[in-house]
Write a structure and sequence with these properties.
This protein has 225 residues and is α/β, with parallel strands linked by helices. 32% of the residues lie in helices and 16% in strands. The strands form two sheets. It has a four-stranded parallel beta sheet, sandwiched between helices. A two-stranded antiparallel sheet has the order 3-4. The structure holds zinc ion (2 copies). The site of one zinc ion (ZN) has 5 residues, from helix 3.
């Protein structure tokens, strides 16, 4: 795991590497519905975390359960140490509600193990978990931010929501989910994602990744480092 850090050539929203810009190209174009985005680690293509995030959803794979348990441990440990950092960013006392970004596929969402991770495996999220979101019937192009992509199952009345997703690639799913929550009446929405995807071959990513020599530090997060 490689912990994202704020810096001069790092996107302020999603921690993507940029070339001296404060935001990456995608985040400039996409409306920032989530108040804060906190990626636990970079997820580098074909790396260990990337493989785990890709494989834990394959329900027929024998090791999927073990991978889900491992990802749950990562989320648990991160929130135990840094949920206070997320709370401080939006000036609330606590997140009353925790929910996961649904699968983009309505049928697959029933089996989506992220709901199991957030709703059952992870101690700090279990008592506050509600399945607030579902994929709507609206056709949405892949990797496109669209507030109609998801719909909520009930109205909200200003509650702060901690929104969990496994992977951030363009951020379209997370921002679409945050949009649906906000339009349903949610208060601040803070997104925590386990892996912020990076393609080694893109632009300067290889050089930038090689430049990160610090080991992963559980006592520091992207917001408090
Ligand atoms: Zn960005
Ligand atoms: Zn922190």
């Amino acid at each position: 795991m490689v912990g994202p850090r704020q810096g001069p050539s790092v996107c302020q929203t999603c921690f993507n590497f940029t070339d001296h810009y404060t935001q990456c190209y995608t985040c400039v174009r996409n409306e920032p519905w989530a108040d804060v985005v906190a990626p636990i680690s970079y997820s580098v293509a074909r790396g260990h975390l990337h493989r785990a995030l890709a494989s834990y959803k394959r329900v027929n794979g024998g090791s999927a359960g073990a991978l889900a348990t491992g990802l749950a441990a990562v989320l648990w440990r991160f929130l135990a140490a840094h949920e206070r950092c997320l709370v401080a960013q939006v000036g609330v006392e606590r997140f009353q509600l925790v929910t996961a970004v649904p699968s983009s596929d309505r049928l697959r969402d029933r089996q989506h193990p992220l709901h199991w991770i957030v709703g059952e495996l992870v101690g700090p999220t279990r008592p506050r978990h509600q399945r607030l979101l579902e994929r709507s019937a609206v056709e949405v192009a892949p990797r496109t931010l669209d507030p109609r992509k998801f719909q909520t199952r009930r109205e909200l009345s200003g509650e702060p929501v901690l929104l969990v997703d496994d992977t951030w690639t363009t951020g379209a799913s997370v921002q679409s989910a945050a949009a649906a929550l906000k339009m349903a009446g949610a208060g601040p929405v803070v997104a925590v994602v386990i892996g912020r995807y990076l393609n080694r071959g893109w632009q300067e990513n290889e050089r930038r990744l090689r430049g990160i020599t610090r080991p992963f530090d559980w006592s520091r997060c992207p917001l408090c480092a």
